[in-house]
Amino acid sequence: MRTTVAKAEQALELRACGLPAAVSIRGRGPRSRQGTVKSMLSALLLAMLSPGGYVMAQQVQADIPSFPAAASTLGAVFEDRYAEVGDIRLHYVVGGEGPPLLLVPGWPQTWWAWRNVMSPLAKRFTVIAVDTRGMGESSRPTSGYDMATIADDLYRLMMQLGYRHFRIVGHDIGAWISYAMAIDRADAVERAALLDSNIPGVTRAPPIFLPKADNTHSWHFMFNQLDDLPEILVHGHEREYLSWIFSNYAYKPQALALEEYIRAYSMPGAMRAGFAYYRALPATMEQNGKRMRSRLALPVLALGGEYGTADTAATTLRPYADHLDSAVLRGCGHYVPEECPQALLDRLIPFLENH
């Protein structure tokens, strides 16, 4: 069925470009229960790709902003750039003067999540805010979403830009990436700040049966790993899905750039790429099991929102970090860079500037 979804995405991409697309999706017939289910899912995809279904998709798309947030809206100091890294194209925004600082966003966001802290940071650092593989305006390949691959993407990007040593700040999935880079590229990463996140394979896994309040913040780890079903259910309902995520995970949802994220994740293949980070969790957890054998010798800052993961990152990393500083940001939810930018800067700048 993954091939089926990929064909559907390809057809949508062609239609988005104004080109004709024909997709032949064949079910196996009702010879078995499995065949029946696959036939039903195939029929649903055909309906989505039918002229009527496409009109419905166009109506949904009509409410979505057409153009991505631009670096120029943050001032002349910042500019959008692209880099060819291996077989993918990475989008990033760069600006400022000083030591290089890499900002890595989480899911389901883009580089735009850092907009409220980039200008103050650019007075002290050369800021590079990146859309990782599959995010925002970067390319969306069908594979390579484990942390070893993503960390290598960003290391190669920084090497292309001429930065042999740099500091890194990651939020959510960006924290997973930052942890991987801090271990895998310890010779290049000077300092790492991890914001409101657990670390797969390092943080102790919760039980399956949880109170409702706890399950609200963890169910997506299982759902997003499923093959095909998330795309089938979310397609055409990106606004509803993302609105629910942000409303339930944020303490100050009004601070989030909801429309920009709906735009970014309504693009063909964007949701599939986002889910791919979770489908790669088994590989990432196996990799992290090996990373745990190495200590974090560099300075590490672990911050969490009071209404987010709080001290989870600090508790997770303390047994493995030689120089760990941590804090819980009061009145803040999961999306720390957007919900509490000043509180974040108050902790982040002294940590990054310390020599």
Essential attributes:
355 residues, alpha/beta, Rossmann fold, eight-stranded mixed beta sheet, 44% helix, 17% strand, disordered N terminus
3D structure, described in words:
This protein has 355 residues and is an alpha/beta fold. The chain folds into 2 domains: 2-61; 71-205 and 277-353, 3-Layer(aba) Sandwich (Rossmann fold), CATH 3.40.50. Helix content is 44%, strand content 17%. The protein has helices at residues 2-16, 33-49, 51-61, 115-122, 147-160, 173-184, 212-215, 219-223, 229-234, 238-249, 258-265, 270-279, 281-291, 312-317, 336-339, 341-353; strands at residues 79-85, 88-96, 100-104, 126-131, 166-171, 189-195, 296-305, 321-329. It has an 8-stranded mixed sheet with strand order 1-2-4-3-5-6-7-8, with helices on both faces. Helix 4 runs parallel beside helix 16, helix 5 packs across helix 6 and helix 10 (238-249) packs across helix 11.
List the domain count as a whole number. 2
Decide which structural class fits the backbone. Answer: alpha/beta
Could you report the average pLDDT, rounded to the nearest whole number?
A: 86
Instruction: Describe the global form.
Output: globular
Outline the low-pLDDT stretches: 2-62
Fraction of residues in helix: 40-55%
**Lateral strand order in the biggest sheet:** 1-2-4-3-5-6-7-8
Q: What CATH architecture label of the largest domain applies?
A: 3-Layer(aba) Sandwich
Beta-strand fraction estimate = 15-25%
Find the count of extended strands (DSSP E, 2+ residues).
8
Distance between the termini: 52 Å
Radius of gyration: 21 Å
**Largest pleated sheet:** 8 strands, mixed
Order of helices and strands: HHHEEEHEHEHEHHHHHHHEHEHH
Count of DSSP-assigned helices: 16
| Main CATH class of the largest domain | Alpha Beta
CATH homolog superfamily of the largest domain: Alpha/Beta hydrolase fold, catalytic domain
